């Protein structure tokens, strides 16, 4: 379908690398191994939701526990098998655009992690439902309609991916053995099968989107589609937020960001700059005591800063697996960007904990466990019996392999082939900083078409943007954190709508 011709050259792949970040404690990993074994050995029986309406064999949901009255939007759920040999099935939530579903863009949204549920993206980032956290006291959580969702202006498929995420599962344990590049192929399979069942959306402009770790997953998926022999999908472009891309830049941007944000003193910054040779984008020499000492001093003064939004408090039981802000390469060939919910900690669902101030986002995360593990909710969603045990908002995927060290070549191949790209950053995120993002974009060497300027929402500055050659747009979201739409929903909705419009400008 009228998609731009894509370069067939293969991006440079560094296979078998062991990129950075945090890993779960041994007892958490052991628990997940038990769950994985249970999933692999279980069988299922499909249960049809009593309050779901049948439409061409689709599970169309009109009412859902926790929401009063009929849903004011079209919601459909289901599974698509992406690995027939091992019975791997990806679960999805599909919400039609409330504006013009026949013409509005179709977005495949992949939440980060890897291993964070599509439900997290739907309830906490870009979907039309939220928990009433402020009004919660006890019992079953109440859902409310949210006006500033992306589904106001686009059709969105929220996908539980890779296999083992959310409600997605595999009949055989071998089906959980998937790599980053392999997951891109499975997402392509998912879209081909899904659109075959939903031909009314085949001509809509298709975008692949996601944030955090999906900075890897999104371009990998998009290029798999773009370089297919039979271009049967109407791919228009892709968008990534606070995107993991290449650890040299992702980690390298942290110290300059902290200095610019006033988290470290001029003296600490200068000590690190001088001791580490002035380039934070290169791995420091482990024998360089001056560099190591400066970095340790910086970590000591910033360890209590919330890395996903430096202005928000640490509270509740959402903990980051691992320790240092600068934790580097680890074993196992996996990269994790999870901020896991410490469900196993005593008191996680304690009423007193749920009485924390509303600004503690952890409260909403806790409510999602109560909601998603409810038998009536699962029946309504059409979850296969025995397919998974307890639901988790974010799961460490023990079988997943991170087989790339960079996706910068993917961005180059896609944009040079004519596909549009939006790379945006919440500007208060210490995890994936706008500093590091700008640095890897500059490394591509594209000429600037439209230089740095503010962009507006509600007649206020919502961020800043710059446009490069080959359809690449960079934007900051002022006041946004690691998942920018979670913190600045109205502004991010406006950003999406403008960028996907005919004009394509913020």
Show the helix and strand layout.
Blueprint: H1 26-41, E1 52-55, E2 58-61, E3 75-83, E4 88-95, E5 106-110, H2 118-126, E6 129-131, E7 143-145, E8 155-159, E9 169-170, H3 180-197, E10 206-211, H4 214-226, E11 235-241, H5 247-252, H6 254-260, H7 266-275, H8 289-302, E12 318-320, E13 339-341, H9 362-372, H10 375-381, H11 408-416, E14 420-426, H12 434-444, E15 448-457, E16 460-468, E17 472-477, H13 484-487, H14 489-499
Parallel strand pairs: 5-8, 5-10, 10-11, 11-14, 14-17
Antiparallel strand pairs: 1-2, 2-3, 3-4, 4-8, 4-9, 6-7, 12-13, 15-16, 16-17
Structure notes:
The structure is a single chain. The chain is an alpha/beta fold and 506 residues long. It has a single domain (26-249, 364-499), classed as Rossmann fold. The chain is built from 14 helices and 17 strands. It has helices at 26-41, 118-126, 180-197, 214-226, 247-252, 254-260, 266-275, 289-302, 362-372, 375-381, 408-416, 434-444, 484-487, 489-499; strands at residues 52-55, 58-61, 75-83, 88-95, 106-110, 129-131, 143-145, 155-159, 169-170, 206-211, 235-241, 318-320, 339-341, 420-426, 448-457, 460-468, 472-477. The strands form 3 sheets. Strands 1, 2, 3, 4, 5, 8, 9, 10, 11, 14, 15, 16 and 17 form a 13-stranded mixed beta sheet that branches. The protein has a two-stranded antiparallel ribbon with strand order 6-7. It has a two-stranded antiparallel ribbon with strand order 12-13. Strand 1 (52-55) and strand 2 (58-61) form a beta hairpin. Helix 3 (180-197) crosses helix 4, helix 4 (214-226) runs parallel beside helix 11 (408-416) and helix 7 (266-275) packs antiparallel against helix 8. The model is unreliable at 1-56 and 316-339 (pLDDT under 50).
């Amino acid at each position: 379908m009228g998609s731009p011709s894509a370069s067939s050259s293969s991006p440079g792949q560094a296979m078998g690398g062991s990129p950075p970040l945090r890993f779960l404690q041994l007892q958490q990993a052991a628990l997940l191994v038990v769950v994985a074994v249970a999933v692999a050995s279980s069988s299922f029986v499909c249960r049809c939701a009593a309050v779901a309406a049948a439409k061409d064999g689709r599970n169309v949901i009109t009412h859902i526990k926790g929401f009063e009255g009929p849903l004011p939007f079209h919601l459909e759920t289901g599974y698509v098998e992406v690995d027939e040999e091992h019975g791997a099935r990806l679960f999805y939530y599909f919400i039609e655009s409330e504006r013009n579903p026949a013409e509005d863009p179709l977005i495949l949204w992949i939440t980060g992690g890897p291993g964070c549920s599509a439900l997290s993206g739907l309830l906490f980032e870009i979907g039309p439902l939220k928990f009433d956290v402020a009004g919660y006291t006890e019992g079953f959580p109440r859902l409310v309609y949210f006006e500033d969702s992306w589904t106001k202006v686009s059709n969105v498929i929220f996908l539980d991916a890779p296999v083992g995420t959310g409600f997605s599962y595999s009949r055989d344990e071998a089906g959980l053995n998937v790599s980053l590049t392999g997951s891109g192929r499975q997402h392509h399979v998912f879209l081909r099968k899904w659109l075959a069942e939903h031909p009314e959306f085949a001509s809509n402009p298709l975008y692949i989107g996601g944030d955090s770790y999906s900075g890897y997953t999104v371009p990998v998926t998009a290029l798999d589609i773009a370089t297919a022999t039979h271009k049967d999908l109407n791919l228009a472009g892709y968008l990534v937020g606070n995107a993991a891309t290449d650890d040299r830049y992702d980690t390298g941007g942290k110290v300059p960001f902290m200095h610019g944000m006033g988290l470290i003193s001029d003296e600490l910054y200068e000590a690190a700059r001088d001791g580490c040779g002035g380039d934070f984008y290169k791995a420091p020499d482990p024998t360089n005591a001056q560099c190591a000492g400066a970095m340790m001093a910086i970590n000591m003064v910033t360890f209590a800063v919330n890395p996903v939004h430096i202005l928000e408090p640490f509270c509740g039981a959402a903990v980051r697996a691992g320790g240092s802000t600068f934790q580097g390469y680890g074993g196992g060939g996996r990269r994790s960007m999870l901020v896991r919910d410490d469900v196993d900690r005593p008191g996680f669902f304690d009423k007193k904990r749920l009485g924390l101030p509303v600004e503690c986002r952890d409260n909403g995360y806790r409510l999602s466990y109560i909601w998603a593990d409810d038998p009536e909710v699962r029946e309504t969603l059409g979850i296969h019996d025995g397919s998974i045990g307890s639901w988790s908002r974010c799961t460490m995927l023990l079988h997943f392999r991170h087989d790339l060290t960079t996706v910068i070549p993917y961005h180059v191949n896609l944009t040079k082939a004519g596909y549009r790209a939006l790379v945006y950053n919440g500007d208060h995120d210490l995890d994936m900083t706008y500093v590091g993002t700008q640095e890897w974009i500059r490394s591509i060497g594209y000429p600037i078409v439209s230089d740095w300027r503010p962009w507006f929402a509600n007649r206020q500055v919502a961020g800043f943007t710059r446009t490069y050659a080959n359809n690449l747009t960079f934007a900051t979201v002022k006041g946004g954190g690691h998942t920018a739409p979670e913190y600045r929903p109205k502004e991010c909705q406006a950003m999406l709508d403008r960028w996907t419009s005919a004009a394509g400008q913020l």
